[in-house]
Amino acid sequence: MDPTFVAGDRLSAADVYAVWQVRDLVFAVEQRCDEPDVDGLDLLAGTTHGWFADDAGLSSYLRTFVATDGIRRIGRVCTRRDARGRGLSGRLITAVHDRWGDDELRLGAQAYLEQWYAGFGYTRCGDPYVEAGIDHVPMRRPGTS
């Protein structure tokens, strides 16, 4: 099964609801993030949402977009608790690499996931920081071209 990818300006109302539902479950409920999730990027044409879904809704999700500095960012990577351990997030990261891996990619990893992202070729590229009350590290993966 391949992941679904949809541009932000092509999301249906049901898609938006499903995206925000899985992000709310993981980030707000489980991780108790202390900042709003909705940041004005989700519905932009240059934002792409990727996910796997099952009968219970989106099971794993991420978002990618090109930032104002011209570098593609990956974020909001999450998997529903009951769908963890199946490698879904890794498959989403790999699918992003398949689509955009010729270019440099960056992300802000939750600090405890630094080694997991390192397994995909990401290295720390700055000082640790706190976002939404959670320790993060900036990471980059050079392009393959």
TrEMBL record:
Residue span(s) of domain N-acetyltransferase: 48-140
Listed Pfam families: Acetyltransf_10
Listed Gene3D superfamilies: 3.40.630.30
MF (Gene Ontology): acyltransferase activity, transferring groups other than amino-acyl groups
The protein's name: N-acetyltransferase domain-containing protein
